Amino acid sequence: MTYKWSISEQKISAALVTLLTEKEFEQLTIQDITETAGVSRATFYNHFSNKENMVEVISAKLLDDISVILIPDRKLGEPVISQALAYIKEHYSLVYSLIDHFPDIELTLKTFISDTILHSDIDLKQKVRNYYEMQEKFAIEIYITTIYSLIITWIKTGAKESPAEMAKTIKHPINQHR
After folding, report:
1. What is the Cα–Cα distance from 98 to 62, expressed in whole angstroms?
2. Residue range 67-82: mean pLDDT, rounded
3. What pLDDT digit, counting tens, does each position of 26-70 carry?
4. DSSP the chain
5. Which among 29, 59, 78, 146 would be 20 to 30 A from 169, CA to CA?
6. Dihedral, 33, 22, 29, 64 alpha carbons, nearest 10
7. Angstrom distance (rounded) from CA 116 to CA 113
């Protein structure tokens, strides 16, 4: 079960997406956010300490939700990856806005992907050793960076491919050498 976003959090997240199409983040005020969201300043401050914290908390909640989706399959099979990508697609406007306006989010996403893969039950060392003819540490980095690049490209180009199609693309190299 993913995190249950409160109505206020949903409204504030939607307001952030809307406002980022009109202004740069630095120009946004708490008043802009609360007026667009239709919530009080007190409600905003019940959830976030400031607008930078809002971005951090929203990003963390999205990644927490994706973690919850991935947990049941520690081998990260296509079905669970497809579910995680479906979640991203369901929250596409928010995810795209975060990635588009906050460069640090991309690094956070790459770290999340790396940690997820490295702490999974995939025998990654054996898989990459069979696929890439180079030192293991470089092969693992190439594999993780490839997955990250596929996901970022998918998001930045409108997430047009289905989550199932993307899951198959992501799993392709690792599945070639079972």
Report:
1. 11
2. 95
3. 999 999 999 999 999 999 999 999 999 999 999 999 999 999 999
4. ------HHHHHHHHHHHHHHTTS-GGG--HHHHHHHHT--HHHHHHH-SSHHHHHHHHHHHHHHHHHHHHTT-TT--HHHHHHHHHHHHHTHHHHHHHHHH-HHHHHHHHHHHHHHHHTSS--HHHHHHHH--S-HHHHHHHHHHHHHHHHHHHHHTT--S-HHHHHHHHHHHHHTT-
5. 59
6. 50
7. 5
If one looks up domain 7-175 in CATH, what number appears? Answer: 1.10.357.10
Closest CA to 54 of 86, 14, 112, 113: 14
User: Is it the case that residue 128 has pLDDT exceeding 60?
Assistant: yes
Inform me whether the pLDDT recorded for 133 exceeds 90. no
Q: Where exactly are the structural domains of the chain?
A: 7-175
What single letter denotes the amino acid at residue 42?
A
Q: How far apart are CA 125 and CA 142, in angstroms?
A: 12
Mean pLDDT (whole number) for 138-161: 95
Q: What is the C-alpha separation between 176 and 73, in angstroms, rounded?
A: 19
d(CA 131, CA 29) in angstroms, rounded, equals 50
